[in-house]
């Protein structure tokens, strides 16, 4: 198997060279889960950022233990970071794509509150689809890039920060609703998770429109 290359800042440097003072790496977590919020992480870099911290990669390429180690490293490395959330209820009400946009808008609001210069930034969004711009009241430059979470340091940082933040929320929820096994599945649809829904019914954290089970909410 060919090893995956570590992320670099090559694409971020192109954005700096095109006139942007800051680059905001952006990635989503929890899009495919059947329970819990969808989370959008954002991480702000400036040109003085030269080296990506050792070991930092797309969260999907890291073990849970490594993510826990690297999340504070990534947070300390970037100028600002934030995680915006949209709840399971909001996903049911408006759909997953608008919910992603809502979570992203909330993350930008948190960045602004922390002092980030949003209007001087380009947003580097993982993937090929710009789901963020339609949610914004103020137009911002959004650049999409396939595999940006793998290849771009700013997006890898956002990915790890968002993943650890959301995982911790699901672990906390497990303490009050242990039957669903959220400490292990983090809200994703495993066989055991679906069996628990069939036995206990869905909880307030479940995305009812996504469930294969016909159980009625308690």
Tell me briefly what this model is:
The chain has 218 residues and is of the alpha/beta class.
Task: Describe the model.
It is globular, with a radius of gyration of 18 Å. It has a 5-stranded mixed beta sheet with strand order 3-2-1-4-5. It is an alpha/beta fold and 218 residues long. The chain contains 8 helices and 5 strands. A hairpin with an 8-residue loop joins strand 1 (22-29) and strand 2. It has helices spanning 10-17, 64-77, 88-94, 96-113, 148-151, 153-176, 182-185, 191-200, and strands at 22-29, 38-46, 80-86, 121-126, 142-145. The model is unreliable at 213-218 (pLDDT under 50). Helix 2 packs across helix 6 and helix 3 crosses helix 4 (96-113). It has one domain: 2-Layer Sandwich (Nucleotidyltransferase, domain 5), CATH 3.30.420.10. The termini are far apart. Belongs to the RNase HII family. Pfam families: RNase_HII. Its EC number is 3.1.26.4. Endonuclease that specifically degrades the RNA of RNA-DNA hybrids. One of its GO terms (molecular function) is RNA-DNA hybrid ribonuclease activity.
Structural class: alpha/beta
Query: What is the number of domains?
Result: 1
The largest pleated sheet is described as: 5 strands, mixed
CATH class: Alpha Beta
What fraction of the residues are assigned to beta strands by DSSP?
15-25%
Spell out the CATH superfamily: Ribonuclease H-like superfamily/Ribonuclease H
Topology, number of strands: 5
**Helix content percent band:** 40-55%
CATH topology: Nucleotidyltransferase, domain 5
User: Judging by the overall fold, what is the CATH architecture?
Assistant: 2-Layer Sandwich
Q: What's the overall average pLDDT, rounded?
A: 93
The assembly state of the depicted protein chains is single chain
Q: Quickly count the helices.
A: 8
Order the strands across the largest sheet as they lie in space.
3-2-1-4-5
Described by the principal axes of the CA atoms, the overall outline is: globular
Task: Give the N-to-C terminal Cα separation.
Answer: 47 Å
Q: Uncertain segments of ≥5 residues (pLDDT<50)? A: 213-218
Sequence of secondary-structure elements: HEEHEHHEEHHHH
User: Which value, in Å, is the CA radius of gyration?
Assistant: 18 Å
């Amino acid at each position: 198997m060919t090893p995956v290359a570590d992320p670099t800042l090559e694409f971020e440097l192109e954005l700096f060279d095109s006139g942007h003072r800051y680059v905001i790496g952006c990635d989503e977590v929890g899009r495919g889960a059947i329970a819990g919020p969808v989370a959008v992480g954002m991480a702000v870099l400036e040109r003085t950022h030269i080296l990506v911290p050792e070991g930092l990669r797309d969260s999907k390429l890291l073990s849970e233990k490594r993510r826990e180690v690297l999340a504070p490293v990534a947070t300390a490395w970037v100028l600002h970071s934030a995680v915006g959330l949209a709840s399971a209820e909001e996903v049911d009400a408006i759909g997953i794509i608008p919910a992603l946009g809502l979570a992203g808008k909330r993350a930008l609001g948190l960045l602004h509150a922390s002092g980030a210069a949003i209007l001087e930034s380009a947003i580097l969004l993982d993937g090929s689809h710009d789901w963020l711009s339609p949610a914004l009241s103020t137009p911002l430059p959004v650049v999409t890039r396939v595999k940006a979470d793998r290849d771009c340091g700013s997006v890898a940082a956002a990915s790890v920060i968002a993943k650890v933040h959301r995982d911790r929320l699901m672990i906390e929820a497990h303490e009050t609703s242990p039957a669903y096994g959220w400490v292990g599945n983090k809200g994703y649809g495993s066989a055991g998770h679906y069996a628990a829904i069939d036995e206990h019914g869905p909880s307030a954290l479940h995305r009812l429109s996504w469930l294969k089970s016909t159980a009625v909410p308690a």
